[in-house]
Amino acid sequence: MRNPRDFGAPLAVGAPTPLLEIPFPPSRMIHFLDASNEKMVAKVPDIAKKTDILLGNLEDAVPVDRKEAAREGLVTVGQTYDLGETQLWTRVNSLDSPWVLDDLLRLVGAIGNRLDVIMVPKVEGAWDIHYVDRLLAQLEARFNVERPILVHAILETALGVANLEEIAAASPRMQGMSFGPADLAASRRMKTTRVGGGHPGYVSLSDPDGDNPRVTAQQDLWHYSIARMVDACAATGILPFYGPFGDISDDEGCEAQFRAAFLLGCVGAWSLHPKQIAIAKKVFSPDPDEVRFAKRVIEAIPDGRGVHMLDGKMQDDATWKQCKVMVSLAELLAKKDPELAEAYGFEPATA
Ligand SMILES: CC(C)(COP(=O)(O)OP(=O)(O)OC[C@H]1O[C@@H](n2cnc3c(N)ncnc32)[C@H](O)[C@@H]1OP(=O)(O)O)[C@@H](O)C(=O)NCCC(=O)NCCSC(=O)C[C@](C)(O)C(=O)O
Ligand SMILES: [Mg+2]
Question: Where does the chain bind substrate (predicted)?
Fold first, then answer.
């Protein structure tokens, strides 16, 4: 076990000091693109205005013969585009692949001061994070990176889910986690060929009732794993994200999956296609009616103590904290988005 007093010390001489508090800028959607695809890169200036996070994907979905082009395309995006306040992330290849070492060397060397977060796929245990942690510290020192590049783990194997608490606590560099339903389904031998979402076969069935038809209700295949991820992240002060929804044609299904994750505590989800950015924005920005109600509770209980009634509902110290979660998120998003500020009823000065 590492000495907890060393947690705030750099892992290499000359590397920047680790952050002990993880930054939480607007993070409703991580928009994926393959920077070897010229059509996608051409959309970067427009997409950067709409998404909270732009991610250059180097791993799965990028063909083997375009791995280097995707890496170099991301370097060009990082060096030439002004993304404003939009964060720039990458997903590097998996740690057992022939590409990951060059991914890290090239990206930290070329755009280390532009990259906010490196997403590491198929993380299975704390050992994977320790490897990346030390290597990044060495590279940061070599290439004069001024602030630590944070690390985001994707949970997409049964072992990764089994070890998720240790992964979350493995390093001060840990920024958050995402959920990878496709690889995870394969790793667990789940019998679904979908990328996230429900399955018509995973249902509960009402009891026999004479000749009346029995009612079924589809259940959420992913509830257990997402809830565990949310707990591990909240317990260590890092951020949980739902991952991808692969049926690009099913906007309603995407919205329902994102909303289940939002309600459970996730801060955002992935967007694979430009149209999923708007879905994530809608879902991961709290509902204006809920925000207005939460503001009323906070105004009614200025010190956050004791018991009160509002619209027939009991309010106390704990509900006050629930309302603070809602209003704090709304305030954060309203600073970026004047339309949301207006919908939430914040003064323009806050926006
Ligand atoms: C799904 C696809 C093939 C449909 O692509 P399409 O070309 O068929 O779609 P379209 O509707 O015809 O596209 C319209 C326009 O938008 C562009 N476009 C389309 N997508 C994007 C994008 N993301 N960013 C920027 N531009 C995009 C596209 O190039 C086109 O441009 P045009 O009008 O100039 O012709 C395409 O959207 C795509 O490749 N998306 C990214 C896929 C990806 O990154 N997959 C990996 C993440 S999921 C994963 O890895 C799993 C996980 C976690 O590991 C695990 O569960 O295990
Ligand atoms: Mg995967």
Answer: 91, 156
Write out pLDDT tens, residues 153-211. 999 999 999 999 999 999 999 999 999 999 999 999 999 999 999 999 999 999 999 99
Centre of ligand 1 to C-alpha 272, Å, is 5
Tens of pLDDT, residue by residue over 49-106, are 999 999 999 999 999 999 999 999 999 999 999 999 999 999 999 999 999 999 999 9
* Surface-to-core class of residue 9, CB atoms within 10 Å of its CB (0-12 exposed, 13-18 middle, 19+ buried): exposed
Q: Which of 284, 302, 335 is the last residue of a domain?
A: 284
Residues 198, 245, single domain; the answer is yes
For a substitution probing ligand 1, which of 36, 38, 40 has the most ligand atoms within 8 Å of its CB? Answer: 40
DSSP 3: -
Residue 351 lies in a domain: no
Same domain, 159 and 237: yes
**Which residues line ligand 1 at a C-beta cut-off of 6 Å?**
32-33, 39-40, 43, 47, 57, 60-61, 154, 156, 180-183, 195, 243-244, 248, 272-274
Strands (E), 58-202: 87-91, 117-120, 150-155, 174-179
Annotated binding-site residue numbers: 91, 156, 183
Ligand 1 atom showing the smallest separation from residue 184 Cα? 57
Same domain (yes/no): 326, 255: no
**What pTM does this model have?**
0.97
Q: Looking at the CA of residue 243, tell me the nearest atom of ligand 1.
A: 53
Q: What SS3 class is residue 65?
A: helix
Residue after which a domain boundary falls, among 284, 317, 333: 284
The answer to whether position 168 is within a domain reads: yes
Which residue range is the domain that position 170 belongs to? 4-284
Whether residue 314 sits in one domain with residue 172: no
Distance 37 CA to ligand 1 centre (A): 10
